[in-house]
From TrEMBL:
Pathway in which this enzyme or protein is active: Carbohydrate metabolism; galactose metabolism
Enzyme class: isomerase
Catalysed transformations (reactions): UDP-alpha-D-glucose = UDP-alpha-D-galactose
Cofactor(s) this protein cannot do without: NAD(+)
Gene3D superfamilies, per database record: NAD(P)-binding Rossmann-like Domain, UDP-galactose 4-epimerase, domain 1
Lineage of the species this protein comes from: Bacteria, Bacillati, Actinomycetota, Actinomycetes, Micrococcales
Domain NAD-dependent epimerase/dehydratase: start-end pairs: 3-249
Protein name in UniProt: UDP-glucose 4-epimerase
Length: 320
C-alpha cells in the first residue's frame, strides 16, 4: 500500500510518515521544503522536492510508485500571517489542492485524507465545537482550508473520490526526539525560545470567564494526530465509509496558565509568566468534541499535558 504524503518533511507530516511505516504502508513524500526539514524524512522513504502546483510531476510520481491514496498536509499554515499574505495562502492551500486533485484523477488515485483545520470554525458561539458547528473562518488560512474541503467533496461526486477531512487546533509535542516543531508562530516553540534566551514568556489576558482567567484551547499530541491520519487511510484503503469531516479534539482543553505552569515544572526553569492585556479577537474558550473520531478513527488523547511538554522540550534540544 503506497501512499503519497504531501508536506511529509514537515513537523506533522514527518510523524505521519513514520506512523504509516509502522502500520505497514509504503509512504512516498512530496515537499516543497518551504518549511520542511530534509532530515525528518527517513532515508528509505522516496522523497521528491517539488510544489503540489506541479501537476504533471505529481502524476509521474503517483504512477511510478503505484500510489493508491494521498494524505494531504502540504500548505501555508499560518493563520495570522495569512492576513498579510492572502494570495499566498489561497495559492498554496486552495489552488495547490486543486492541482493535487487533478493529478490524482489523472493517475487514478481514489483515496484522500485531508489535513484541514479547526480554523474553519472562526469564533463559534459555542465553546465546544462539533462537526455540525457552522463554519465561519476569519482568516484567509481558514477560508482556504474550507475551500479545500469543498473541492474535495465536489471531486468525490464527480470522480468517486473516497475521502475524509480532519480538523484540529493546536498540535504540540514530539513522537521522536529528532522531530521538532520549527514553526516561528506556534506557542511551544515561542515559549521555549524565550526561556532559552533568558526571557520570561507572556500571557495575554487573565480576566476571561474561565477557571483561572486565561484562555482555554485544544492542544493535541502530534503522535496521536498522526495515528488518526493513518487510521483514516487504512479504513479508506479497506473500502470503509467515513464521515466527510472529523474533529480531532480533547473535548475539554487546557488553559494558557496551565501550560506555563507545566513548562516551568517540566523544564526546571522557574518563572512566573508576564501578564499582559487581552489581544483583540481571542475568545475565552474553544475546544473540539472528538467523539466521532473516537468512534471511527480510534482517536483518543494518549498523552498528558506534562508528556506533551516533555516530549516537545526534549526534541527542541536539537535547536538549542
Amino acid at each position: 500500500m503506497s501512499w503519497l504524503v504531501t508536506g511529509g518533511a514537515g513537523y506533522i507530516g514527518s510523524h505521519v510518515v513514520r506512523s504509516l511505516q509502522a502500520a505497514g504502508f509504503e509512504p512516498v513524500v512530496v515537499d516543497s521544503m518551504s518549511s520542511g526539514v530534509r532530515s525528518f524524512v527517513p532515508e528509505e522513504v522516496p522523497f521528491y522536492q517539488l510544489s503540489i502546483l506541479q501537476t504533471a510531476k505529481l502524476v509521474e510520481i503517483m504512477k511510478r510508485h503505484e500510489v493508491t491514496g494521498v494524505i494531504h498536509l502540504a500548505g501555508y499554515k499560518y493563520a495570522g500571517e495569512s492576513v498579510k499574505h492572502p494570495l499566498l495562502a489561497f495559492e498554496q492551500n486552495a489552488t495547490g489542492t486543486a492541482h493535487l486533485l487533478e493529478a490524482m484523477a489523472t493517475a487514478r488515485v481514489h483515496h484522500m485524507v485531508f489535513s484541514s483545520s479547526a480554523a474553519v470554525y472562526g469564533t463559534p458561539a459555542e465553546d465546544v465545537v462539533t462537526e455540525a458547528t457552522g463554519t465561519f473562518p476569519e482568516s484567509p488560512y481558514g477560508q482556504s482550508k474550507l475551500v479545500g474541503e469543498w473541492m474535495i467533496r465536489d471531486q468525490a461526486v464527480a470522480a468517486g473520490l473516497k475521502h475524509t477531512s480532519l480538523r484540529y487546533f493546536n498540535v504540540v509535542g514530539s513522537g521522536s526526539e529528532e522531530l521538532y516543531d520549527a514553526s516561528p508562530h506556534n506557542l511551544f516553540p515561542l515559549v521555549f525560545q524565550a526561556l532559552n534566551a533568558g526571557k520570561i514568556p507572556k500571557i495575554f489576558g487573565t480576566d476571561y470567564d474561565t477557571p483561572d482567567g486565561t484562555c482555554v484551547r485544544d492542544y493535541v499530541h502530534v503522535a496521536d494526530l498522526a495515528l488518526a491520519h493513518v487510521e483514516a487511510a487504512r479504513k479508506l484503503e479497506a473500502g470503509e465509509d467515513l464521515e466527510p469531516v472529523y474533529n480531532l479534539g480533547s473535548g475539554d482543553g487546557v488553559s494558557v496558565r496551565q501550560i506555563m505552569e507545566t513548562v516551568a515544572e517540566v523544564t526546571g526553569i522557574g518563572f512566573t509568566a508576564i501578564e499582559e492585556a487581552r489581544r483583540p479577537g481571542d475568545p475565552a474558550r474553544i475546544v473540539a468534541d472528538g467523539k466521532l473520531a473516537a468512534r471511527d478513527l480510534d482517536w483518543r488523547m494518549r498523552h498528558s499535558l506534562a508528556q506533551m511538554v516533555h516530549s516537545a522540550w526534549e526534541a527542541s534540544a536539537q535547536r538549542r
